[in-house]
Amino acid sequence: MMIGELEINPSKIICVGTNYMDHIEETKLEIPKEPVLFPKTLNCLISNDQPIIYPKMLYEDPKMNRVDYEVELAFIISKTCKHIKAANSYEHIQGYTVFNDITARKMQIKDIFSKLPWFRSKSFDSFGPIGPRIADVNEIKDPHDLNLELRLNGEIKQHSNTKYLLFKIPELMEYITRFFTLVPGDIIATGTPSGIGPIKPGDVLDATIEKIGTLSNKVILEGEMGSV
Amino acid sequence: MFKIGNTEINPTKIICLGRNYLDHIKETGSPVPKEPVFFAKTLNTLITNNEPITYPRVLYDDEEKRSVDHEVELAFVILKTCKNVKTENAYEYIQGYTIFLDMTARSMQKADRNINLPWYRSKNFDTFGPIGPKIASPNEIGDPHDLTIELSVNGSIKQSSNTKHLIFRIPEIIDYISKYVTLEKGDIVATGTPGGISPILPGDIIEASIEKIGTIKHEVILEDINNK
Hints:
Number of domains of chain A: 1
Order of helices and strands of chain B: EEEHEEEHEEEEHEHEEHEEEE
Distance between the termini of chain B: 22 Å
Largest interface: A-B, 38 and 36 residues
Strand content of chain A: 35-45%
Shape of chain A: globular
Order of helices and strands of chain A: EEEHEEEHEEEEHEEEHEEEE
Number of strands of chain A: 17
CATH class of chain A: Alpha Beta
CATH class of chain B: Alpha Beta
Radius of gyration of chain A: 16 Å
Helix content of chain B: 10-25%
Oligomer: heterodimer
């Protein structure tokens, strides 16, 4: 997988849910005592300028036809690590990028309240746009002071700053590696701020994080020209 | 790359079915699903035959969380990239069959589910996905829905069933999953576990067998954080 000029070979994508207070309030989820983790599978990855494919099975079902954008700061792992301490976490980070955690919202809510896994709603093909590049860990002095925003057809929908992250990157690294070995190329997405909302075929999403750049993706309906 | 017996595979994901045998659904008190329930395990879980299952310290040292269960499952490995597969063509996309152990931190899973959190961390500790001892070809297996499946702990049989009791069968599973995600060559799909799950502890020896495939054997060892 190429992100800008860099090739990465991720084995997994780990996402942090409910990690901005304002997003927790809008989704009415509980404030977590420890980070909430879920995976996305690699079939969801697309790069800058590739289309997000709106699945027909969601589009045609009135109970399922809501798909949301979620702009997130993500970081890429540089070396294999397990049980690392928060203080050493940056040694294991290659750099930062923009991730859009596209989510089939009605399906997710239905599954959550049926005590089912958060998987299918998050991992449709193309539901993980990433890019436009990896900003080197040394290029970004403080990853917790970056403006991030998402524009839908040019209109600002999400606007926040990574300083509002509930669990910050060192804590996330320490927590995640208590459970799982991370390997080079693995992608960790840190969660989304408030302002989530639905997309439809034809929309254009621009997700921007200060010092990294803008990730642009058009939404197309599954089966249309250009979809797989 | 990952070796199962003499065959090298390069999986991008592991997809597991939950709640796919009636007796297991009853023992966990879950509702019978109307459609397949599936979730992802990440690749850090994979170990091969005879490698130890590591009992995580973070679970062992906390009495409320000291509950790790075995779940023996028939798994199949994907032969070629596929999406939106029809049931009648499903077998064209299967390279072969193997045994998978979906190790699960049960009390952690229940606690997470009760507060509407993802089924992720409890399923994905390193070594929580033993697989092997070989990939049996479709020709060797014949009918994959008529295989005895069994698991013993320290020589005493805990799970004993037959794949004919699967609620959702392999063609339906491929049809259903590939509506959501593209399956890639080497991807692993585990079909769910029968009744008889029970807790394991360090020192235990687990043996899991499926007719026409063989047996995998794993010792459970306590994680040594200082010697990672």
